[in-house]
Amino acid sequence: MEKKLERRELSAEELARLQEILLEMILEVDRICKKHRITYYLGGGTLLGAVRHQGFIPWDDDADLIFRRKDYEKFRSVVKKELDPRYFYQDRDTDPYAHYVNPKIRRNESVYVTEFGAKQTGMHPGIFLDIFIHDKTANTPFFQKLHLWETKACRAMLVATWSKKQYDRKPRLFYSIVNFFIRHSRVETWEKHTDRALTRYRRKKSGFYYDGTGEHINHGAFPISWLGKPKQAEFCGHKLPIPSDAHRYLTYSYGDYKKLPPEEKRVANHAIVKLQFPE
């Protein structure tokens, strides 16, 4: 029987080294985007860190960037030839074992395995930077909710099919049917359904985006103008782009983002089971 990997806590030295590598990865993406005039933004906890701490959140163990769909497609067209050899651009095409809904940049010669990632074999396991793509959604609340539901359902089925997850929930009949589809579906089928859901409104005239590939999907739609033309913010001694209305975007994402969480919640995001730094 395979030995189960146990979650481990990072030491202060390990966290500092991890954030140093993540900053190097952000700066590499920034270099490529500046060269090719591609718009991107700091996102998620990295954006929160920029605004609240002028750098990483002190306990953060990952990095997040935002691209609008059109900017991401331009980035994707150049990243493989532009990326420094120390890094690996990971999506379904470059890594057939990775079926994440969002692409990543990985650090070669490193290992960063989470409890979820440990269930997947074969894919590049390096320290990663997340790229989240914001897509257009509908203009009306009803169709926004419908779009949200479709995306969440496709994402859930993609993850479940990939990880061979089975649901044990009520109503039993409904989840028995869901489990049947999970057992008998191909991952590639749900990848196509998910991509179709994410880009359903790409050719429509819309004033709203949603976080279709990220963790803030449940927060629904937000005005396109909140991203807008990037502003420059201090981040670990560098000037990096953030949304034009970062205050509203962060409030949408976190509520009262200026308030620090209780001390017991100031912990790393990921359940890390294996970490190895490059030489």
Could you explain how this protein is built, in words?
With 279 residues, the chain is α+β, with helices and mostly antiparallel strands. It has two domains: 175 residues, 2-Layer Sandwich (Beta Polymerase, domain 2); 63 residues, no CATH class. Helices cover 38% and strands 18% of the residues. It has seven helices and eleven strands. Strands 1, 2, 3, 4, 6, 7 and 8 form a seven-stranded mixed beta sheet that branches. Strands 5-11 form a two-stranded antiparallel ribbon. Strand 9 and strand 10 form a beta hairpin. Helix 1 packs across helix 3. The protein is globular, with a radius of gyration of 19 Å. The model has no long low-confidence stretch (mean pLDDT 94).
Write the layout of secondary structure elements.
Layout: H1 12-36, E1 41-42, H2 44-53, E2 64-68, H3 69-82, E3 87-90, E4 104-107, E5 111-114, E6 128-136, H4 141-163, H5 172-184, H6 187-198, E7 208-210, E8 221-223, E9 231-235, E10 238-242, H7 246-254, E11 272-276
Parallel strand pairs: 2-6
Antiparallel strand pairs: 1-2, 3-4, 4-6, 5-11, 6-7, 7-8, 9-10
Helix pairs in contact: 1-3, 4-6
